[in-house]
Amino acid sequence: MPCDLILVLDAQSPREVVPALRQLQGTVRWVKVGLEMYTACGPDAVREIADLGFKVFLDLKLHDIPNTVAKAVESAAKLPIGMLTLHTCGGREMMEWAVKAQRQHKPDLLLLGVTVLTSMSAAGLAETGVAAAPDQQVVRLGRLAAEAGLRGLVCSPLEIAPLRAVLPADVALVTPGIRPRDAKADDQTRIMTPADAVRAGANFLVVGRPIFKAPDPVAAAKSILAEIAAA
Asked: CA 124, CA 214: separation in Å to the nearest integer?
C-alpha cells in the first residue's frame, strides 16, 4: 500500500485556509477536518472543502455508547468524506457497531481507530490509570480494533513497527506526529521524520503546521511528498 500525505486544517473556518488550499490544489490530495472546524462550522465545512477537490479525513474521534456511535457513523456517512475516526478505548462492542454502520451506509469509508494520542507521554497515560507504556497500550488497542473489524488505525510513528508486527498487512496506519528534521515539535511528544515513518510502514502521514507555517506552503508540501517518494 503506497503512502500519502494528509494536510491538517488547524482553523475554525474553511475561509481561513481556502487561499492556501487553492495554492495546494494538485499537490495535496487529502485534508483533515478536526473538532475545531467541525464544531465551529459543522457539516458545511466538510462540503466546502470537498467542493475544492480534496478528499476529506473527518477527525471527530467518536466515543460513546455503541448505538450512539453507530448512529453518528451513519450520519457522517452522508458527508463527502473518505476517513472517519473513533476512539478504540470505547471498546469492542462500540467498534463493532460502528463497523456495521460503516459497511451498511458507506462501504468505501475508512473507519480509523485512535489508540493513544500523540500528545500523551507515559507519565500522562499513567495519570489516567493506564499502567502500560504507550507502545504497549497502542498494541493492545490496535489488536482489539482489528478484531472488531476496523481496517485502519491512527498511531504515533514510534508505534508503527510494533503494530505492523501483530496486525494484518491490509490495516492502514495513519500517522500524526510527523515533523521534517528542521521543524518544531510543537505539542507532539512522539514524533518522526516523513522518511523514517514511511520506512517503518506508515500509509498516511498527517502534517499541518510545517506546511501552513512555511514561507511557501506548496514548496513545503512538495518537499515532504518528495521525501515520501524517495523513502
From this structure: 31
